[in-house]
Structures are given as C-alpha cells and as structure tokens.
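Consortium newsletter contribution from the modelling node. Members have asked for a concrete example of what our holo predictions look like. Here is one, prepared for the iron/sulfur cluster complex that several groups have been discussing at recent meetings.
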Amino acid sequence: MGKVSFEQIEEKVRAGERLTGEEALFLFETNDLPRLGRLANLVRERINGNLAYFVHNHHINPTNVCVGGCNFCAFATMDPNDPRAWMWSVEQIEEKLSREDLTGVTEFHIVGGIHPDFNLDYYADLFRMLKRNWPHITIKALTAVEIEYVALLSKTDYATVLRELRAAGLDSMPGGGAEIFHPEVRQVICPGKADAEQWLEIHRTAHEMGIRTNCTMLYGHIEKPHHKVDHLLRLRQLQDETGGFMTFIPLVFHPEGTELARKYNIKMSTGANDLKHIAISRLVLDNIPHIKSYWVQLTPGLAQVALSFGADDFDGTVVEEHIYHAAGAKTPQALTVAELIDLIRAAGRQPVRRDTFFNILEVYAVEREAPPVPIEVREVSPQEARRWQPRRVAAGAE
Ligand code: SF4
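And here is the predicted structure:
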C-alpha cells in the first residue's frame, strides 16, 4: 500500500468513500486541525445539513457504589459506607422525581455504578415505576457493563435480561462502558468489567431485538492512536452488521481525583485534541448518523465549536450530572432549553429539539427573534430510512 496523504484522504471523503485503518491512523497523527475540521464539517453537513440537535432529558444516577473498580473513575466508590456513597431505592427516586418539574422532558437517561444488590428486579421495578408515572418519557438506560452484571447476577443470558427490561419499559440504551476496547489498554484502566467482546455482543443483541443504542470511546489517558483506530473500526463493523447505533460520543478523560491520572501523571486533554477526536470520529464512522459534542464534559463553549468540526448533537438539558462533576468538571449541572437553543444559534447552527431516536420534535429558526417553527413529522427519504434502520431485526422479532 502506498504512503497515505491528506490529499488522498480528502479525495476519498469527497467521493464518499470509506477510510481505511491506516488512513484513520494518519489523521490521529496529523496536527493540521483546520484541514481536519473542514473535512469533517463537509461530512457533517452532508449527513445532517445545518441542523444541531438537542434533547430535553433528565439524568438519573441511582447509585455511585460500584464493584467495577475502574481506575479512571472519580464517580464511584466500592464502599457502601463511604460518606460519598448513595443508593436510591425505587421509592426514593419516585419521590425525588415527583418534586421536580419534568414538563417537556422526553427522555430519562439512567446510568450508575454496578451495585451488587441492584439486580434485574430492581431495574424492572424502576422502569415500571417510571412508566407508571411518566408513560410519555422514553427510558434510555443501563450501559452494556450494567447489563452484563445484571445477567451475571441473574445467571442468565443477555437476551433474557434485555427482554425482561424491555417488557418493564426499557426503550433504548446509552453507549457508556466501551472505554477503549483494545486489551492493552482495557487491562490497565478497567480490568474488572465487561470486556470488548461482551460489550459488543450486548449491543448486537439489543440491535437484533430492535433496541437502538449509542456508542462511546474514552480518550485522553494512556491510549495510543492505534488503540483508537481499532476501537472505531470495531464499532463501524458492528454498525455495518446491525445498523443499530444512533450516535457516537467521544468522551474525554477527566483526570482530577483519579488513580489513573496519579499513576501515569495524565493531564487534561486540550481543546484542540478534543476537536480532533470529534472530527476523526465523523470521518471514520461513516455509517453512524450522529456525532455528539457532550457539553457536560467538553464545556458548552467548546461543544459549540465542535458543531463545526463534525458534531451535530449537543446532548441535552441533563439536570443533575454526577459522573463528570465527580471528576472535576466545572460545567453547569444543567442547561435550560432556552440556553441550549441560544448556544446552538450562536454557533451558527439551526437548533432542533429531538427525541431519543432523533425524530424531530421542534425546529427553531437560526435567528433569535424568529418564533419556533413547529413541525409534526420528520421527512426521511426512503434511502435514508434504509441506511439508518436496524438491518438484522427479523420479521416478528422482539
Ligand atoms: S466507570 Fe462505571 S464500572 Fe467503572 S468504576 Fe466507574 S461506575 Fe463503576
């Protein structure tokens, strides 16, 4: 194979051709950020035009007690008696949510520690309680790592766990727990939790059942470019197979208060590095429709810039984020819908309120003075529908 060049990559991207692992590696090794950004923006606008999505969501982190023991995590504690520990019963969550204003919320985003007592019954009860009280709110819950542990506790397979949770109200799954798939890294940063094969198998199972999910990659610690290329290509391969991923979220490692950062003297990633990861994700993951700039961990300011470096989704209102704030994130705990709209507008994009599945709920004018433009249904071309729908959902499957 000949030497890789930026010209060759640009030519392929303009022609809509898929990048190879070698080309992805070249991109990780370049520092020509403006050129990378322009190319990623071209793809971003080809797929998502000028739209920038957000969701009116509400995070629930039922516990920070976790047996996972990942050394990059400042959120969890292994000791239930730690003064920082919390474990909410289903009743406590119900009571807490009843006191909150959930007007307009369309999604519960639920992730937490791997608590040894939080079994299938706990989560099924939680989802049933949420659907009983707020039947219109989508439940996007449990990373593959949590599903793996629940299956272990129940001594059953992933499909059974997912089937029971879906019957209780599970609608979709977030993409956390992927970290870095490559064992050279995974064995160092999170040896105690689901491995790459298990993570991928759980998402494959979910997609085959028609449950759409997201995917992630944790960067900015001890990983090398070839580990990230391997990670992205494995996600792309699964997406080729199932088509079930909606969004990819590059997650930056927040070193504050973590054992991993202490041991390897890791400093916080820079803005340029974050934009580079957003851009490369957009270029390599040509079959995943959305790339998220998660404002909670990037900061709202950098997330705005990322909307011109390949990202098209701003995440959401969030409300009470514990995971990144435990690792020193200085961002707010929540943004209002009006603030999200203003941030997106100021970045020159058209704000769109979406649901979990990227159905458009409301399109706002690019200019602040104009009133919202409500629309009823999203126009999706048959070609686009074919491209983004799960392909391995058999007729009559769950
Ligand atoms: S990253 Fe997740 S699995 Fe690992 S310790 Fe933190 S909460 Fe537990």
